[in-house]
Amino acid sequence: MTRKSPVTSAAPPASAARAPMSTRTFNAIALVVLIVFAVIWLIPSLFALKTSLTDNGVAALGAREILKNWNPTVHSFASLLGGSDIWNWYLASGITSVLTTILTVVFASMAAFSLSRLTFRGSNVVLTMILLGIMIPAQVLIVPIFQELNAIGLLNTYWSVIFPQVPAVIAVFIFKQFFDGIPKDFEEAARIDGASVWKVYTRVVMPLSRPVIAAVTVLTFVGVWNNLLLPLYVLSNPGLMTIPVGLATTQGSYGLRYADIQAGALLAALPLIIIYLIFQRQIVEGVAGSGLKG
Fold first, then answer.
1. Nearest CA to 85 among 267, 226, 257, 227?
2. Alpha-carbon gap, residue 209 to 233, rounded angstroms
3. What is the DSSP string of the chain?
4. Residue 51 near residue 264 (C-beta atoms within 8 A)
5. How far apart are CA 76 and CA 68, in angstroms?
6. Which terminus of the chain is more exposed, N or C, with fewer CB under 10 A?
7. pLDDT tens sequence across 15-42
8. How close are the terminal C-alpha atoms of the chain, in Å?
9. How many other CB atoms are there within 10 angstroms of residue 94's CB atom?
10. For residue 70, what is the DSSP state?
């Protein structure tokens, strides 16, 4: 039996000594993977930017000619901003996206609060039915939605774009998961002080839910802004067209004018990029707190 010297006894185990090396290796691998995915994402984006800064005649010749050409021009951006209805598209997309987001956050949080904090008969059945809604593709519902909007006279209005998108099942699920993680001590203290259910919702739960509110707000705004199918079916007035519908009509009229098409796509995505850069921390915190981690 060998005896350990004081120096040997004080030394950390071999596995513990190798732990920092394994951590560094993992971090290095993770960094390489992130760089690879960043490059994969950036290459199409940079090519789209290069195409938008190329003359339409050169862009029609193909990718090789686009990459060879180094005479950038902003003609496509100037023609879109000055000679098209893109400002009306921006206004329509802004109105529908903002109003839909506000209504979605309000009603989804209220539904999630009732499922998370209130006890009533059939709550599990209601939650199951709501979750089943995630499995139904939006394309399947477009015809019934069209018929309902036509029956109540809302076709060709902003409300025909807003109302069908307010019942967001995924927003209810995200809010409920976050509310389930809030300690009930705050709620019980408020009830002892005589707070009603409404005050608990508005004064206790919602102020603690700012990260998930920000996440749902941004995700809903982006989804409504990018929605093409619903506005395409329910809007026929060119003055009410949203950005995706306007770009679709632009592509049809421009034909092979790829530079104009790419410029329009970049202009449509610019507000979303700015919003994401501003609220990226809130999005990560809200989704992580809702239990939707990978």
1. 267
2. 35
3. -PPPPHHHHHSPPHHHHHHHHHHHHHHHHHHHHHHHHHHHHHHHHHHHHHHHTS-HHHHTT-HHHHHH------HHHHHHHHHSSHHHHHHHHHHHHHHHHHHHHHHHHHHHHHHHH---TTHHHHHHHHHHGGGS-GGGGHHHHHHHHHHTT-TTSHHHHHGGGS--HHHHHHHHHHHHTS-THHHHHHHHTT--HHHIIIIIITGGGHHHHHHHHHHHHHHHHH--HHHHHH---GGG--HHHHHHHHHHHHTT-HHHHHHHHHHHHHHHHHHHHHHHHHHHHHHHHTT---
4. no
5. 19
6. N
7. 444 445 578 888 889 899 999 998 898 8
8. 49
9. 15
10. -
Residue whose C-alpha is closest to residue 272's, from 219, 215, 230, 213: 219
Question: How would you class 73 by CB atoms within 10 Å of its CB: exposed for 0-12, middle for 13-18, buried for 19 or more?
Answer: middle
C-alpha 79/C-alpha 264 separation (Å) is 10
CA angle 14, 17, 22 (to 5 degrees): 110
Exposed, middle or buried by CB within 10 Å (0-12, 13-18, 19+), for 5?
exposed
- Say if residue 240 is exposed, middle or buried (CB neighbours under 10 Å; 0-12, 13-18, 19+): buried
C-alpha angle 223-47-245 in degrees, rounded to nearest 5: 35
AA identity, residue 245? V
pTM to 2 decimal places: 0.79
CB atoms within 10 A of CB 78: 11
Can you read off the two tokens belonging to residue 138?
């939006």
Dump pLDDT digits (tens) for 38-83. 889 888 888 888 988 888 888 888 888 888 888 888 888 888 888 7
